[in-house]
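Bench log, entry 3. Co-assembly request; chain sequences pasted below exactly as received.
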Amino acid sequence: MRNPIASSSTNKKKNSTTTGNENGTTATTTPCCSKVGLKRGPWTPEEDEVLASFIRKEGEGRWRTLPKRAGLLRCGKSCRLRWMNYLRPSVKRGQIAPDEEDLILRLHRLLGNRWSLIAGRIPGRTDNEIKNFWNTHLSKKLISQGIDPRTHKPLNPELSIPSSSTTPPPPPPSKPLPVITNHQTLHETTTHHHLNIASVNQECDEGQYQYQQPQAVAAAAYMVANDIPDDDIPSMDHLLANNNNNNQDYNDINYCSDDIFSSFLNSLINEDAFSAQRHLQSEHHDDLAQDPVTSSTPQGYNGIGVAWELPLMPANFSQNEHSHEVDDHHK
DNA sequence: AACTTTAGCAACCGCAGGTGC
DNA sequence: CGCACCTGCGGTTGCTAAAGT
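Structure output for the full assembly:
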């Protein structure tokens, strides 16, 4: 196929669309895109250079006025998009690596189509790139495996995963793992408990709860990790339920969830942590044919169906500590 | 070789949330 | 409080190259 490292000269968007035409006469367009004389469509190398050098000199932001200040005949939106998705030095070009693919899968299972959030956890990748990769590769891959790419659940639970694939089917949800309902130390938590997201999913309605579960999981992690007394720890049912209403009894969950959720996500991209977690899981769940939470794609395993279980592991729990933890566990 | 279909992805659009007045 | 503006996000479009016929 085409070279994934597309230069601006290979950009394909045509120079007019159904809205926001060159004359700026379409009422539905935003002002910045409808101004007369603004260029649209593919960026030229010259424009790229002007934009990049200007931002290097003046910094990002003030996109609305940036084109004028930089001397570009583009709207601010277009400039921002070009910078964010292509010109930024931190943007990593090239194929998505298998471990990145696996991470995207796991994060999408947690977050849904929150591309910017997913991209924020994958260094060098943009939301647009991940979105495109998902739409062109991963969603099709999941469908071919009989998995709904939106819910990450089997498309038809009655049917087994197609066996035509050369890769093993995803592991079935294992027996429900303990939900954090008791007072546990971080040590105990990271050693002995894994939240079974699949089982949690089954307890929730489709839709509105779906993407709020991570916050509930993170809230549970927070409570356990911070040694909150037994009586103050709600069950996961409560956490999930109260993520969907504004019950002030659990407002503390909302307060902490962003940070903890962030930490929780960080834990997902901690390779070593996952290695340790794999080790632990293999001890606790020998019946799993394939480790579902591996962060690198094992040979012969395509990553589909990962994260049937997710580790409960705050990111501030250092790798060294965790390695030690694993060692202790084996003693 | 010519044509059609499919895959890949940059760029666009509309909307929503945040912020300042 | 309401409004306008700015920024960022997610969904979608549509062009080009590769693959297939």
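The two ends of chain A are 52 Å apart (CA to CA). Residues 186-330 of chain A form one domain.
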